[in-house]
Structure formats: C-alpha cells, structure tokens
Amino acid sequence: MQTAPLAPRKATRPRADALRNRERIVIAAREMFVEYGPEVPLDEIARRAGVGNATVYRNFPDRDALVREVVCSVMDRTAEAAEQALAETGDAFAALERFVHTAADERISALCPMISSTFDQHHPDLEASRRRVEELVAEVMDRAKAAGQLRGDVGVGDLMVVVAQLSRPPAGADCLSIDRFVHRHLQLFLDGLRAPARSTLPGTAVTMEDLRQA
C-alpha cells in the first residue's frame, strides 16, 4: 500500500507577543548598554524589559547576539529616518539633518564602539546594517551636493566622525544629562556643512574606508 507523501511543513510565524517581547528586550538592552556599558548583567536587562531570563536567552543565545542586535537596530532606525525625510520632502539636506539628529537620539556614538575585537565585526547582519547606513548617507550627501546645498569638500567619514564626537558626553558627564546640549551643537555643525563654504578645510574629504584604515 502506497502512502501519501508528507506535505511540507509551513514555516510558523513568531507570535505577536513573542515579537513584542523581543522588541522590549532590545529597547531595554539599548538603554542599559548606554547607561552601564556592554557588560550589564542580562538578568537586569530582563528585569527592565519585564520578561523572564529564559525569554532573553530564547531570543539571544549569548551577549554577543544581543549587542549585535541592538547595534543593528540602531543603525537601521537612523537609516529609516533619513529615508523617510527624503521621501516626505525630497530635500536631501533635510534628510541629512534627520539622520544626524536621530543618530544622536539613538546613542549611536555610545553603542557602535561596543563592536570591538571580542565581537564578530563581519557578521552578515552587522555588515548589512552598516552598508545600508553608509550607502544611504553617501547618496543623501551626493544629492545635497548636486543641489548646491552641501559643501563639496566633506565626505561620509567626516560626517560620521563629527556626529560621534559631538553626541558623546565629555569625561565625567552623564550621558543622559547632556541631551539638551547635543542637538544644539549638532545643528551648529550642520549649518557649517551648508554651501557655499565659508572656509577651506585642511586635507581631503574623509571616506569610511579612510576611517577603517586609520
């Protein structure tokens, strides 16, 4: 007697509550990594997220996986902010401003250095998020230059360095207490990017490849 072939299993989608728990873990981890550094106990992250320890480990088998997810989510949200601004207004400089201010709000300067030699810097997810951000910012900057909005002697690397420096709290200052200053100083920097240039910059425009080789 012949038996009917087994039907292929349908891939099951994560339940809505499981997705919400994962998002709560990532948000809590981002907040605590910024406040206390990447070595904060995972059970403290679970407590802030309002989930059990088992839920954290079910979603993220180790600390590296959680740190990577947090950094990727931050880069993805900053890219989405620039994309949305560009779609809404068509104004490349407005998109650049949205990216810069969102990057500061997301604490990108505090989180990205966590991807150190102890982590897989070439993990496909991390590479994809990093490439998306770099390509989008390069496109936005090129469009702003073509429109005569952005001075021509700056590169993506210049932007990333200054955003990281201006959104990082000085030694001895609390990260959360300087929020009222960060956006003010970033806007001063953005105004200095506008064309026509008021000065001649020393050296040449810095690319992301220059930063990686530094």
Automatic annotation (TrEMBL):
Residues 19-78 form the HTH tetR-type domain. SUPFAM superfamilies: Homeodomain-like (SSF46689), Tetracyclin repressor-like, C-terminal domain (SSF48498). Residues 41-60 bind DNA. PROSITE patterns: HTH_TETR_2. Keywords: DNA-binding, Transcription, Transcription regulation. GO terms for molecular function: DNA-binding transcription factor activity; transcription cis-regulatory region binding. This is TetR family transcriptional regulator. It comes from Streptomyces mangrovisoli.
